[in-house]
Amino acid sequence: MLDSMDYVKLSRSLTQFFCELRKMDRSCYKADSIRVYFHAIARSLKDNNPEINVYKDARFHNLKKTVDGLIRTLRQTENPIKKQAQEITPDMEKDLRDRGFLGYDTPKGLLGALLFELGKLFGLRGGKELRSVRRNQLKIENVDSGLVKITFFEDRTKTNQAGTNNFIIA
Fold first, then answer.
1. What number of CA atoms fall less than 13 Å from residue 86's CA on the CB side?
2. So what's the pLDDT on residue 156?
3. 38, 45, 66, 111: which one has the fewest Cβ atoms less than 10 Å from its Cβ?
């Protein structure tokens, strides 16, 4: 069927498809689902006919504008998803330390404390910032009585233009 269909007709048909696309219960798909459908169809068309490129071909301009507008409209009406963990209050942290889950007296407590502190330090950062952490930003040094001090030197970031002197874990 696609072999006999010209690009203009294909573009109109796909535009109509996206305008009428609904779930079985007639509700709208989420914006991300529409975006994924669009990219999947574009990829399938390109795989079947390398001459078809809905991203660059001017004959598909209206299709792209329609899908972009649909996605923009859906994003404005969707409830934003807040990915946020429950806050650990200082009282909760004290309770964890009192019960031995976080501490320096036992290997299990030390491991818990290390994971907790590293989670606070690195877990709140974005993906790009985590991927850019380099080995030379951590300094490990022995201090008196067999303790080890780990110092993290933070680079300048988009939200922290001045950088910080350092964070000390221990």
1. 3
2. 64
3. 111
Cα separation, 113 vs 90, in Å, equals 14
Q: Which residues of the chain have pLDDT under 70?
A: 1-5, 80-85, 123-130, 155-170
| Backbone torsions φ then ψ of 54, nearest 5 degrees | -65, -20
- Cα 95 to Cα 99, 111, 159: the distances in Å are 6, 17, 33
- The DSSP bridge pattern shows strands 138-142 and 148-152 to be antiparallel
Q: What is the pLDDT of residues 96-127, one digit of tens each?
A: 888 888 888 888 888 888 888 877 777 666 66
